[in-house]
Amino acid sequence: SARVVTTAAPEYHEVLADLGAETALDYDNGDLTDAVLEASDGGVDEILDHRLDSYLQFDADVAAQNGRVVGIGENAPNPAFTNDGAARSKDVNYQFMLLFNAPDLREPLRGVGHLMGIGELSIEIARTYDLDEADLAHRDVMEESYLGKLVVTP
User: Fold this and answer.
1) Does the keyword NADP apply (predicted)?
2) Which of 26, 74, 117, 125 is packed most tightly, with the most Cβ within 10 A?
């Protein structure tokens, strides 16, 4: 099984532990690189990052030898390294993905539905919005800190 190290605001650490994170670190920690390396015994094997535009170099710095970084969303069109030697020297593999590129979502959604049905997976809902508040939900996605999903209901 995986040992999960995650970053979040301190107010979410306890909930993340309840969800299975072994270590939750404050992403505003001035020594975050050292803290991740210590928590991961020297490097992270698999990194999921939804902010590669801000953390591309950080990911290279904390990745293990032959580690993999999966970019699940970026805001900047040209994220860049400040020192690409960190990634090259460890043979870090970068993979970029967009859910919209998946050819058929039925099979993975059936798997998610099954896990939810047997109680192995749950979805944290941070906030709900009425449809006429959709603009506020979009703003909050971009600007707020929250744990879970923001849901717009009709």
Assistant:
1) yes
2) 74
- What six digits make up the tokens of 79? 């994220």
Strand locations in 1-139, DSSP E? 5-8, 23-26, 44-49, 63-71, 93-96, 125-130
Tell the burial category of 135 from Cβ atoms under 10 Å away from its Cβ (0-12, 13-18, 19+).
Answer: exposed
Complete domains list, the chain, with CATH: 5-101 (3.40.50.720), 106-153 (no CATH)
Report the Cα 145 to chain-centroid distance in Å: 13
pLDDT in tens, 106-140: 888 999 999 999 999 888 899 999 999 999 999 99
The two tokens of residue 129 are 């919005």
